[in-house]
Structure to design on (778 residues):
């Protein structure tokens, strides 16, 4: 996407200062989480080495394996070390080793130790082979997407019936109505599971469980449709919760195109420990970056708990931070869809002008990022005609400010998980407005010093203040102070904290090393 | 002008007693004449006279959406409805404070949460947090209440344990996700736990959510249920009145006063 001329007359020096503060914040997060791994990062390594499946108690084998090593205090060296040693000692492949561990026939930490260099070499080779295979498939998919995929603003639509087979039907309705991206929302509370459920699922609450098999079924349904209709529809899911990096892994394996990826969401709204999830996020974004998956960050969510007019600077500040954190994981700007939302309360006088200012500000600050723009939800109350009217104005702002990805609104927001027709009527409105006002952005200049320019510059000024303050105290302290979404979380509390492991001399992570070797992070 | 017959009320389109109703629904059948006729038959069976398909649309192969109008033949008796007591006589914030001071005389301890796997804390936040909802302060902002919001995804057991710890007068639970009646199972479990802990009689139990009604709440063993359109002062009115009534029952009027 080409940088556009500034319509907001932003202070270039102030923007640069924001970027510098964000870089400082990101550096400090990296320093404060260095020298640590987590159980989910280690399970990610196991998955990339080919460990999959469940045991007779339905426990995923990556969990069995990592818990086995963790119970023996060996995780500080990394699961790769123990797996590699067992491969050398037994001549078996990682999956066979995991099965033997699960059956209680093998104790990985009780084997003779091979030469560390040899272990490293063997595991790196295995990892390269398997990740290379995934990479090749993703390259083919990228070519297909570039040839047959839609152009921005991409119409992003959510499904999530609880039943993956129904989701396929819903996603085809989305495809038929011109949707570009289908995202399956996850069953409520899945983010709190310390494992990835296994196999196809037909029951879920508020969404459908994300499993590798469900990803595969959705992908297959959409690919078949694409084949018949010669139009590519992207598939999206979520790298969030306690298994962020594992979802990035299975997402790459099953050819997803987009993934929500934001640790802050888990910290604020799922009470996940901030240290834990920021370590997971780093590896998760490296994987998304490496395999060419576009991420969506979750700034829109702050506006669901805090007032959208007052919290706007925290959205902008968070976009600067998320942008820097993603770049530091080796992501390209075109892969970073920063979050934003149209959540100002409808009775607000000139609310549309504030929305316009915020949307335009986001575009001008991050001209090469696609931006993920979210519809009104917080104040939508079951009056579906009003919701539809709000969505129409939301669509107008999307096209006028050139957002990259737009989650289409549905009239029944706040009533139920969308029914089949709700999505169709939402998408029809998107099409109507996108076409009817196609080039409106190019035609519009804002009055110098008018409401829109003044608002955008004020938000930027406050975002800058906030970034300076966060740079001063550090991200962790800022979260403790309730900077985002009016929610406070403490560094020494939250779910998943016991899954953080200090790395020891000799630790290695072949997945991360391979990605770093390829220029990622 | 004819007068409305409140004993035989019908929907109003543009004149009295026309009975006009608009429906929209999807049928899992391919678009075409057969689909339209199926929609009309269905509308007739729903009791709609002279149904008309004004719009039909293919959603994908095998699914068609309809907008149908028809004349409703049935009537309903407005005068015979049992009106839910909770809909009547809410007090304002100031009135609640004054009432609590007079009848209760100490802060009312309230513990609330969005329980089970539900992550949507919007309802409980609107009721309890200082910032409240559409300009109406939550219970935290009242002198009459000592409010504790435990947030979302709180296990029922944790909520009850906290209520015991604080010796709470009331437990509030919010449920937003209602797919496959998850909220009913969850609410039932809460009542069972409170009963098992022997706290049912001394604790006011109230629940809220977009699909919760006062009738449903009572059926499940709660003292009250609050639905869409509830503001913090509605809940507060109920709580102060209910607690005052209970205190009065527990300690009858002293003699000699």
């Amino acid at each position: 996407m080409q940088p556009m001329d500034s319509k907001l007359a932003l202070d270039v020096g102030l923007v640069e200062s924001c970027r510098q503060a964000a870089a400082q914040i990101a550096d400090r997060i990296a320093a404060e989480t260095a020298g640590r791994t987590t159980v989910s990062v280690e399970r990610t390594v196991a998955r990339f080495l080919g460990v999959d499946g469940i045991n007779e108690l339905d426990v995923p084998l990556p969990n069995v394996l990592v818990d086995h090593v963790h119970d023996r205090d060996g995780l500080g060296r990394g699961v790769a070390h123990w797996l590699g040693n067992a491969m050398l000692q037994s001549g078996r492949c990682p999956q066979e080793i995991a099965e033997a561990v699960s059956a209680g026939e093998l104790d990985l930490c009780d084997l003779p130790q091979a030469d560390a260099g040899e272990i490293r070499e063997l595991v790196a080779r295995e990892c390269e082979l398997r990740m290379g295979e995934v990479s090749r498939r993703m390259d083919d998919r990228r070519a297909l997407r570039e040839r047959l995929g839609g152009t921005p603003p991409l119409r992003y639509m959510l499904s999530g019936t609880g039943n993956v087979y129904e989701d396929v039907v819903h996603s085809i309705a989305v495809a038929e109505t011109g949707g570009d991206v289908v995202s399956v929302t996850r069953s409520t509370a899945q983010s709190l599971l310390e494992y990835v459920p296994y196999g196809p699922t037909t029951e879920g609450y508020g969404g459908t469980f994300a499993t590798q098999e469900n990803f595969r079924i959705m992908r297959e349904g959409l690919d078949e449709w694409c084949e018949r209709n010669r139009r590519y529809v992207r598939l999206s899911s979520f790298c969030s919760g306690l298994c962020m990096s594992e979802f990035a892994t299975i997402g790459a394996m099953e050819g997803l195109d987009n993934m929500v990826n934001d640790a802050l969401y888990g910290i604020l709204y799922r009470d996940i420990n901030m240290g834990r999830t920021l370590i997971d996020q780093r590896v998760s974004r490296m994987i998304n970056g490496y395999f060419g998956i576009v991420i969506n960050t979750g700034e829109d969510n702050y506006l669901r708990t805090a007032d959208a007019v007052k919290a706007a600077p925290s959205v902008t500040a968070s976009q600067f931070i998320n942008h820097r954190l993603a770049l530091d994981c080796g992501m390209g700007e075109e892969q970073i869809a920063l979050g934003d939302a149209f959540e100002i309360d409808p009775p607000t006088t000139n609310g549309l002008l504030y929305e316009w200012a915020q949307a335009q500000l986001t575009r001008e600050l991050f001209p090469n990022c696609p931006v993920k723009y979210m519809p009104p939800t917080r104040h939508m109350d079951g009056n579906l005609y009003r919701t539809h009217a709000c969505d129409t104005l939301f669509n107008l702002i999307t096209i006028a400010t050139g957002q990259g990805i737009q989650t289409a609104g549905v009239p029944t927001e706040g009533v139920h998980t969308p029914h089949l027709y709700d999505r169709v009527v939402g998408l029809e409105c998107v099409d109507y407005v996108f076409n009817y006002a196609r080039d409106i952005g190019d035609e519009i200049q804002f009055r110098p010093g008018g409401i829109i320019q003044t608002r955008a510059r004020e938000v930027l000024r406050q975002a800058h203040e906030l970034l300076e303050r966060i740079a001063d105290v550090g991200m962790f302290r800022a979260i403790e102070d309730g900077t985002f979404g009016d929610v406070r979380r403490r560094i020494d509390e939250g779910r998943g904290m016991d899954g953080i492991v200090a790395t020891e001399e000799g630790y290695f992570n072949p997945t991360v090393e391979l990605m770093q070797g390829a220029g990622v992070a | 002008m004819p007068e409305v017959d409140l004993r035989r009320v019908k929907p109003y389109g543009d004149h009295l007693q026309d009975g006009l109703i608009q429906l929209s629904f999807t049928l899992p059948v391919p678009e075409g004449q057969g689909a339209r006729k199926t929609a009309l038959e269905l509308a007739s069976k729903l009791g709609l006279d002279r149904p008309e398909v004004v719009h039909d649309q293919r959603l994908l192969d095998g699914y068609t959406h309809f907008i149908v109008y028809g004349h409703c033949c049935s009537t309903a008796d407005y005068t015979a409805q049992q009106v839910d007591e909770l809909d009547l006589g809410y007090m304002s914030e100031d009135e609640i404070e004054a009432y609590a001071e007079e009848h209760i005389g100490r802060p009312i301890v309230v513990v609330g949460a969005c329980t089970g796997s539900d992550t949507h804390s919007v309802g409980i936040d609107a009721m309890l947090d200082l910032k409240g909802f559409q300009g109406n302060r939550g219970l935290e902002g009242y002198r009459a209440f000592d409010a504790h919001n435990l947030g979302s995804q709180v296990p029922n057991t944790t909520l009850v344990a906290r209520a015991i710890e604080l010796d709470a007068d009331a437990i509030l639970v919010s449920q937003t996700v209602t797919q496959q009646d998850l909220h009913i199972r969850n609410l039932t479990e809460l009542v069972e736990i409170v009963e098992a802990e022997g706290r049912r009689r001394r604790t006011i139990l109230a629940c809220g959510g977009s699909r919760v009604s006062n009738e449903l709440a009572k059926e499940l063993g709660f003292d009250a249920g609050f639905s869409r359109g509830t503001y913090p002062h509605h809940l507060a009115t109920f709580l102060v009145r209910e607690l005052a009534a209970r205190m009065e029952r527990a300690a009858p009027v002293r003699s000699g006063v």
About this structure: DSSP finds 20 helices and eleven strands in chain A. Chain A touches chain B through 31 residues (CB under 8 Å). The two ends of chain A are 23 Å apart (CA to CA). Chain A has a mean pLDDT of 94.
